[in-house]
Design goal:
single chain; 231 residues; alpha/beta; Immunoglobulin-like; 2 domains; 5-stranded mixed beta sheet; 4-stranded mixed beta sheet; 1 helix; 18 strands; binds copper (II) ion
């Protein structure tokens, strides 16, 4: 009798041990996938435009009282008539380890963004009811992907009906002239037609700023911004 109990006990212990190892392994694989996605997934989706003698705008955006100066969007409000073909390339906002990646993606108006579920659990991506581009993709399985077209220029918050902590933003811009800042706040907008423009910023918690710039062909103009808390 004692021997049987001991055998059962050993078996159960072994099963539990294997399960723990497997879970640790899965979590390590997920962390690795997450890091890779953060480095590789694009944060800017635009169409290719041919410009004669273009100039460049570059600079730094200082984001005050937030963890870093990344994930801010800098854009030109209006270039020409602001009419551009929708990008052919799709954006990707992945779902891994209960996180949307990237956290902020800026896309030119008309772009399609795919929402693959590469997590270990089901998700339900949606945008809030008061948003300018309201959608709800329903709950869908691991391995599945659903697309959304963003055809209005505005900010679209992304949420998950299953996980309240999940949050991200699609920022839709009228033209191809925008950039998402790196963690140090640096950004570059190139291929800009010569002209005088109004630039604007977007940040999920900080106040929007404006600045006039004059772009000359073949030259680089600098435009720095300082973003503060909304009042
Ligand atoms: Cu979720």
């Amino acid at each position: 009798m004692k021997k049987i109990i001991l055998t059962i006990f050993t078996f159960v212990a072994l099963v539990l041990f294997t399960a723990t190892l497997k879970a640790a392994d899965e979590s390590a694989v997920m962390q690795e996938k997450l890091q890779k996605a953060m480095q590789e997934l694009k944060t800017e989706i635009r169409s290719a435009v041919t410009v004669d003698n273009p100039g460049t705008i570059t600079g730094k955006v200082q984001c005050r009282r937030v963890r870093h100066s990344g994930d801010a969007v800098v854009y030109i409000e209006k270039v020409g008539d602001n009419k551009y073909d929708a990008p052919v390339e799709h954006g990707i906002v992945d779902q891994m380890n209960l996180v949307f990646i990237p956290h902020v993606i800026a896309v030119q108006k008309g772009a399609t963004v795919d929402f693959p579920n590469n997590d270990l659990v089901r998700h339900n991506v949606f945008s809030p009811p008061d948003c300018c581009n309201q959608f709800n993709l329903g709950t869908y399985d691991v391995g599945a992907s659903k697309p959304v077209i963003f055809d209005k220029s505005c900010e679209v918050p992304l949420l998950c009906n299953v996980h309240a902590e999940m949050s991200a933003f699609v920022v839709v811009i009228d033209n191809p002239y925008f950039a998402v800042t790196a963690k140090d706040g640096s950004y570059t907008i190139d291929n800009v037609p010569p002209g005088a423009y109004k630039m604007k910023t977007w940040h999920e918690t900080l106040k929007s700023e404006e600045q006039e710039v004059k772009v000359e062909g073949g030259k680089t103009v600098e435009a720095d911004f300082e973003l503060k808390k909304r009042k």
